[in-house]
Hints:
Layout: H1 3-31, H2 47-53, H3 60-73, H4 87-105
Helix pairs in contact: 1-3, 1-4, 3-4
Amino acid sequence: MSKLIATAAIKGAQTLVKQADEMLQKTIAEKGKDYVFEFPDTAFHLPMILAMTGFQVKTLGDMIVGLGFAKELLHDVPEDHIWKPYLGEALDSGMATLFAEEIILA
């Protein structure tokens, strides 16, 4: 995998996870951790996080745990002087992005 592509994926994931964290903290301050949500006209809460982790996210407080899964998947940007396989880090960053986007959309 190209270092350029891996770097872009990792930086993008870091940006979206940070954005999701900021939005979540703001929403929790407004509505509280126990606020229950679901996607309109569905019984789904956060299906991607549920499918990949088995954790049901039903409240804003649960979203903190879901976002924690995303944060665990984040990696540092590859260094200029070290050449190694980047596929694992890029794929982890992709999952972190999916989790963060799902939280942002909710």
